[in-house]
Amino acid sequence: MSAPTSKRHAQHTPIPPSPFLSISELILPWLTPQELASISCTCHTLSHLSKLITTVRSSDASRSFEPLPIPFINSVDSHPYTFFLYTPTYLTSSPSFARQFWGSNVNPNPNYNTHFNFDSCMGVSDSVGCDCGEICDGDCSCAVLWGGEMRTECGTSCDCELSCGNRVSQKGLNVELKIVRVENKGWGLFAAQLIPEGKFVCEYAGELLTTKEAKRRQQVYDELAKGRRFSSALLVVREFLPSRKACFRINIDATRIGNVARFINHSCDGGNLSTILIRSSGAVLPRVCFFASRDIHAGEELSFSYGDVRLRPEGLHCFCGSSCCFGILPSEDT
Fold it and tell me: What are the phi and psi torsion angles at 24 (to 5°)?
C-alpha cells in the first residue's frame, strides 16, 4: 500500500527550475530591447521569458528605485515601453554603469542595494546646518523661500533625519503617476491620482553637464532631430543672482539617463507644474524640482513651459493643445 502513496506524492513534487532557466532569469533583465528581441528568437523558453521581462518593464519605469511604481500605458501603437537608464537624482559625473537591471521580480532585486544620496551632490563638508534634532519645527533655519522660484531644505550638514518635513523633495516619488503614449506627442507623464496644489511631484534628474558639454550634445541632438524621430531631454535652467545681473547655468541631460521627469511635455500656457530650484543645506548645486501649481486631477497630463524663446521657425511642432499654442516648441542657442 505504500507504493501508490509514494507515487501520488511524487506527482505533486515541484520540479526545480533548470540551471539554464535560473541563469537566464538573472542575465536577460540586463539586456537592451534590441538584444532581448534577438535572443527571444533562439528558443521557446527564452521567448517566453523575454515576454515576461517586457511585461515587468512596462509595469514600472523606475525599476524599483522609487517608492511607487510608474507604469507605461500605450493604446496608440505597439511600443510597450521606452528604454533608458534610471536615476532618482542628478549625477555629477558620468555614470559608472552602462546597463541596469530591469524586468525581473527576482529576490533580491539588485536595484534595492543601489543608494542615491539626494543631498550630497558637491556638498560642502564644513557648512553649517540646523540643529533642530530628528524632526525640524517651523522655526528651522534651513526652511527659506526665495521669491517663489527657489527654496532651501535640510541637508547633509543638518542633524535631522530623512523623515524631517523640510526634506520633501528627497524622499522620491510619493504621488501616483503613469507614462502614457499620446498621439503626435509620444510619451507623456500623467497624474494617476489627485495631486493638490503645492504638492511636490518629482525632480528633473539626469547627467549634470558643463556648459561646453551641453552645447556639444545639443548640436548632436539637433542633427538627430531633423529626422523627426528623435527627441532629446536636455534641460537648461538659469539661476539668477539676487542682483539679477548675472546667472548660474544648470545643464541636466536626461536623454540617456534620467527619471520620470524626462516624459513631461511642454505647454504654451505654462502648464500645471511650477519649477522650483531647491538647494539642500551643505550642497553647492540646487536641484530642479516640480510642484503642482494648481490642483491636478487624476488622468490629467503634467506639463510645464520649456521657455518663451523660439529661434528656429522650422523647429519641432508643438501639440500642447492649449488655446495660446504657438505651434512650435521653444528653442534657443544652448
Answer: -60, -40
Backbone angles phi, psi at 276, to 5 degrees: -120, 130
**C-alpha radius of gyration, the chain, whole number:** 23
The secondary structure element, H or E, covering residue 7 is: helix 2-11
| Rounded-to-integer distance, Cα 207 and Cα 164, Å | 27
| Cα–Cα nearest to 315, from 304, 303, 331 | 331
CA angle at 220 for the pair 216 and 222, rounded to the nearest 5°: 115
pLDDT at 222: 83
Query: Scanning the structure block, which residue is given the C-alpha cell 534620467?
Result: 258
Amino acid at 195: I
* pLDDT reading at 7 higher than 60: no
Spell out the residues 6+ positions from residue 311 whose beta carbon is closer than 8 angstroms to its own: 331, 332, 333
Q: Cα 99–95–101 angle (5° rounding)?
A: 25
**In which order are the strands placed within the sheet that holds 200-203?**
144-146, 150-153, 273-280, 287-292, 200-203
Indicate the pTM of the whole model: 0.86
Half-sphere exposure in the Cβ direction for 53 (13 Å, CA): 25
User: CA 69, 70, 72 angle in degrees (round to 5)?
Assistant: 135
Which amino acid appears at position 26 of this protein? L
Q: How many C-beta atoms surround the C-beta of residue 160 within 10 A?
A: 22
Q: Give every strand in the sheet of 234-240, ordered side by side.
A: 207-209, 247-253, 234-240
